[in-house]
Write the structure tokens for this entry.
Amino acid sequence: MTEQPLALWWAKARSAGPLPVALGTAVPTGMLRLAEPDAATAWLLPVLPDGATPSVLDELGLPSLAVEHPNDTARVLAACVRCCWLDQARPLWPGSAAQLDEVATVFGATTGREPMALNRALLGAIRRLAGAGWLLWDEATRRVRLGPRVATWSPAELSTLRELCRWALAGARSAGAGNDHVSEEGQR
Amino acid sequence: MTETPELPLAEAVGEAAVLRVYQQVFAVLAREAGAMIADPALVDVDEAILGAFADAGTEGLAIEQAVLACRQFRPGLVQRRFEVLREYGAISRLVDRPSERFHRAAFAPYVMLLFLRRMAAQGGQSELHQLLAMEHLSVKAENATAADGVASAHRLTKVFRLLANELGILVAGSPVETLRDNAQLLWGNRELISQTEEVHATVLKKWPELGRDCAALRIALAAYGDAVESAASRLLEQVGATRALGLLPPEAWLSFARSADEEKLAAVLDQFVFDAPAPWFSPQALMEAVESGRPVGPPRMAPPRTDVTDTGPETGGEMVDDAEDLRALAELILGERNEVRIPEILNEAGDWLAGRRVLATVTSIHQHPALGYELIWEDGLRIEPGASPSWVSDGIFRRLGISRDDDHSGAG
């Protein structure tokens, strides 16, 4: 791929996030193609080298992009990872879909807030995350899936996530266990 | 007499400029109010009629033929314009008799029409430039007389007075929108002024006796310059930082933003790419957020306390201190001496079990902070394979500070 279309792809990805394309599209250099489970479309996701990811900002102590309600948003993402990443031996993408109630249960266990405030925080965070490509949110069916951006996490970071799912959210596991089963069946 | 169809406002704005110039130029021709051009569409009818005459050739046209040639317009409209043009002399009968049906057209109205179209499109500025250039040529010509110079200066004085007056009145008393619509009066003023100054210089140099007329021209020019400046400053005040006088007024943008649908609004930004990095969440951050958010259970009540005022902590049990016992043991070991060597006290103790107890005692005396004794180990080593402690390292157990006191007493 020549330079100009390549730069265009990167600019698009930078301004619009992960790009949905037809499956046959040539993959630009440095991008990752993530096929959707239905095998019709795919996402193009820019993959940065380890030393150039946004986490470097944290290491350098520089301010990163401000998110509204950063803690709640991170908690909701964690809850979604917990609910959508059922088989932790396999990669995060594509994961499986989870009902909103299921995520709400896990999220509620991490904060212990009253249901109204909880629901408001949950929906706000899900919309923010969906806008940035971390989640795929289907408003009509009220189902959540992990977005293509989760594929940027490195294997080392995945072990942190496994730990998160096993221990930090373990209390929520028993609460959401019944729902897990349902959603798995619903997925098939 | 002419019908004024109800035009949408936006369309009318575009045609208003054409109409204004048309009316200004034709005002001298309109003897009757009914014959006055009040609709830009009539200009098109006139042009079509004159075009039909151009196509007709030398035989001329009857009014019915003209109506037929201009069938894109309403027949009544064409007939009425035909009559108006005939009244003004733009169209006349081939032979001047009442029954004559065929007409011929003069070329001058069409030239005028062309001129008007250009004036309308360019606001008359370029015509003014050409006029100035022609004036300059005529006064520069070899055979030009002082009368030509006076006439030229007078004409230019009138032009600039009219310009300055119009602009000045707009600046002083009109809403800024009207001023903005007439901004064409401002365009190209620098070249106009410099061209006129050239004409003025030529006239003054050639005929110095025309000083009065030239002064009038200079005054008109200066008035025009002032009017332009005040108009520009008023416009700039309204526009803000941008120098684009042709920008839409804020109201237009507001109504656009209110009335446009999503696609139209989005289309404004079609050409732009925004740098929009997404927020980043590292798993570590997720972990921290989850852990910090963990509920700590219901808030704890403070344990109940008695009402009586706190008397402070009760004194605990007595501190167990064996300082006195140790001191007694030390005195027992040292006896009269100020210091004693470790091998000696081990010998005194006899067997290793007792010696071990003595060593433990000596060590704890040494380590008690309140007691003034010390134990110092030295390098020497006594080895006796047959004895009960088969080896003993050298050391001294002594009173602290006593030797110094002894030195002092010795010195004393």
